[in-house]
Design brief:
Blueprint (H helix, E strand, L loop, with lengths): L25 H17 L4 E3 L3 E4 L4 E3 L1 H9 L7 H17 L3 H4 L2 H6 L1 E7 L12 E4 L2 E8 L4 E3 L2 H4 L5 H13 L5 E6 L5 E6 L12 H9 L8 E4 L5 E6 L5 H16 L10 E5 L2 E4 L1 E4 L2 E4 L3 H15 L3
Antiparallel strand pairs: 1-2, 2-3, 4-6, 5-6, 6-7, 8-9, 9-11, 10-11, 10-12, 12-13, 14-15
Length: 317
C-alpha cells in the first residue's frame, strides 16, 4: 500500500495564493490562521490575527513565519496542522509565562548551555544586539541560551551580568565544537561532483560553520587545507560543505548554489540562499540571485585559487 500512497492533498499551485505566505493558497492561509487563533483561545489567550503575526491584549506579538513554514513542509499535510500548531503555541506560552532562565539558572549552567548562532540580519534589532558580530553580508553571530523547549537569543542587557562578551563567545564556541554530528549525507553526481551535508534537529547545526574545522574532522577524519572549503547554510538544521582540494570544486560550487537556494525557500529558520568560501574562519559570498536566476560571483582571490588548482593538474599547460 505504501508504494501507491498519495501525498497529502494541497490546493493546486494555480489557485490564488496567500499574500503573505505564498506557499499557501488563500484558503490554506485562512485555515492556518484560524487554527492559530483557536490554539491560543484554548489556552485562555484571545489574540488578534494579522497576516504575519498575532497580538494579544497586552501588546505581545507572536510571529507566524516559522510556524507557517513548518506546516507547509509537513509531509503529512494539513490534516496534522492543528496538532503542530497547538504544540507550538503551548510551547511559546509556557516559555513566555515561565520565570526567566537567566534568573533561575546558576551562572555555570548558563555557560554550559551557551551557543553561538548564525542568523539572518533581517529583523535583528541592532540596539538590543549591539554585540552581534558580522560573519558575512547580511549574516550575524549572536549568543543563545539552549533551553529544553526553546532557544533564548541573548541581548546586550542579558549578557551584561554574565561576563565579557569575548569570554562568553569562547565558551559558546567550545560548547559548539563538542556537539555530536546527528546526521551526515554525501551528495554525489555522475560527473564526479561531491559535497557533504550535516543535518540535525539541533538549532545550531548550520551555526557549526563557526567551528567548521571540527565538523570536517568529525565527518571526514581529515583537516581543512589552507585553500579552505565551500559552505552553505540554507536553514538552521543544515550545513553543507565541500573541502577544496582540486578543481572539482567548480562542480561542487554550481551544485551547492542550487542546493542552497532551494533549501532556503519556505523553510523554518532560514539563514542564507548563498554559497560561501570559508577560509581561515572568514566567509566570502560566491553565489547570488538576480532576475535571471542564480549566478556565481568570483572575486580576484578565489579566481587566483582556481587558476592555481587548474595549473597544478595540467602542469601549467
Amino acid at each position: 500500500m505504501g508504494i501507491f500512497r498519495r501525498g497529502p492533498r494541497r490546493d493546486a499551485s494555480d489557485v490564488p495564493r496567500d499574500p503573505e505566505f505564498g506557499f499557501f493558497s488563500n484558503d490554506e492561509g485562512a485555515r492556518f490562521r484560524a487554527v492559530v487563533r483557536e490554539a491560543f483561545a484554548e489556552l485562555g489567550l484571545e489574540v488578534t490575527v494579522y497576516a504575519d503575526m498575532v497580538k494579544d491584549s497586552g501588546g505581545r506579538q507572536f510571529g507566524l513565519g516559522n510556524l507557517a513554514a513548518v506546516c507547509h513542509n509537513e509531509p503529512r499535510g494539513p490534516r496534522v496542522w492543528p496538532e503542530l500548531i497547538r504544540k507550538h503555541v503551548g510551547m511559546v506560552l509556557r516559555t513566555m509565562d515561565a520565570p526567566s532562565a537567566l534568573e533561575t539558572m546558576p551562572p555555570e549552567q548558563i555557560r554550559a548551555q551557551l551557543y553561538p548562532r548564525v542568523i539572518s540580519g533581517d529583523g535583528l534589532d541592532a540596539q538590543s544586539f549591539g554585540y552581534a558580530r558580522s560573519v558575512a553580508p547580511g549574516l550575524y553571530e549572536i549568543l543563545a541560551l539552549d533551553l529544553p523547549e526553546s532557544v533564548m537569543m541573548l541581548t546586550d542587557e542579558a549578557l551584561e551580568p554574565l561576563g565579557k562578551v569575548p569570554d562568553l563567545r569562547e565558551q559558546a564556541l567550545r560548547n559548539l565544537r563538542e556537539l555530536p554530528v546527528e546526521g551526515h549525507e554525501t551528495v554525489k553526481g555522475d560527473d564526479g561532483m561531491r559535497f557533504d551535508i550535516v543535518v540535525g534537529d539541533s538549532f545550531y547545526t548550520a551555526s557549526r560553520v563557526l567551528a567548521l574545522e571540527a565538523v570536517v574532522r568529525q565527518v571526514t577524519g581529515r583537516e581543512v587545507p589552507p585553500e579552505g572549503a565551500l559552505v552553505a547554510m540554507p536553514f538552521r538544521h543544515q550545513l553543507a560543505f565541500h573541502v577544496i582540494r582540486d578543481s572539482g570544486m567548480v562542480l561542487a560550487l554550481n551544485a551547492m548554489a542550487s542546493f542552497a537556494a532551494s533549501g532556503y525557500e519556505d523553510t523554518p529558520g532560514s539563514i542564507s540562499p548563498y554559497v560561501y568560501w570559508w577560509r581561515g574562519g572568514t566567509l566570502t559570498q560566491l553565489s547570488d540571485r538576480d532576475g535571471e536566476g542564480l549566478r556565481i560571483v568570483v572575486g580576484e582571490d578565489f579566481g587566483e585559487l582556481l587558476e592555481r588548482l587548474v595549473d597544478d593538474e595540467t602542469g601549467g599547460f
